[in-house]
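All the exercises in this workshop are built on plain-text protein records. Instead of coordinates, the fold is spelled out as a row of discrete tokens. Once this layout is familiar, the rest of the handout is easier to follow. The record below serves as our worked example for the rest of this section.
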Amino acid sequence: PPIEIRTALGESGVEWAKGEEITILRPRDGSIDLIHAPDEIQIDIDDFNKRVIVPAYNRAVCAELAKHIDPSAPGKTLVFCVNDRHADDVVGELQRAFAARYGACGHDVVIKITGKSDNDPEQLIRHFKNETNPRVAVTVDLLTTGIDVPQIVNLVFLRRVRSRILYDQMVGRATRLCEDIGKRWFRIFDPVGLYDVLQDYTDMRPVVSDLQTTFARLIDALDRALAKAQPDDARQELCEQLQAKLQRVRRSFRQAEEDRFLQLSGHAPIELIRRMADWTPAEALDWWREHETLAAWLDQPRKGRGEGPVLLISDHEDTVAEVVSHFGPKQQGAAAYLA
């Protein structure tokens, strides 16, 4: 059964009282500033490492993971994060947690493999599959690479996924048997309450087209369409709406906005629009979930796009409250997937 890691902040969320001082990060230039909360702010685990960076939560979870995952033992571990910045944080926390528990580990035991990795992601994947190290790959977007690493024995979900189809694709990374290490099972670690929000295949709602809808709402609608097994044409229509909306917004860009778009996405607007035409709905959802900062920036009123959204930084302490292992109503055992 999945191993649920529950922390105090994960259960309660993080909150600031009105007027309380908050540290913020400006992603545009990496600067740190202090503000005072204009009102009471409460953010739950759904937005951890999206709207708010929670170092103590990441640290507590990684320390607990180190109790269960020995980096010198046979098998590999794949960790799914919210975005590239979150992946960087988790790599550092896991390296420190492993060193504290098992002694000094090589710098290549835990690595990040995303589209923004310093080295070629395909080369990193080959190393992950064929070499002793890395033992742990921390990623956001490996779903679309067709990664096949039979040695994966641990999956760690540090991001919530509502789509059952997307979830099955993620779990599929660990379903291969591996005689070389005697693999007969794999483990799922769930620190984010994944199964509380995972949709059933049959939980369906109609998709509504709205030319005035935001990027965030279109992305959520695509997530629901995949989760609820809506017809292929409904999912494709949402992808086309995203593409068309981006095309409309692009036409009004000034040079500063073109530059900011490139910084947030890694692509010029017209290049991304062309790439989107070749994506499957699952690939589109995966990309936009990794680039939620871009979607938030695009959804801002034009006059507010100059700076872009800020991220709150929590200085709250966190500890692991309990670790439980059981099957919930939306969970299946690993044996249901192994092949």
Summary: The radius of gyration is 20 Å. Confidence is low (pLDDT under 50) at residues 201-211.
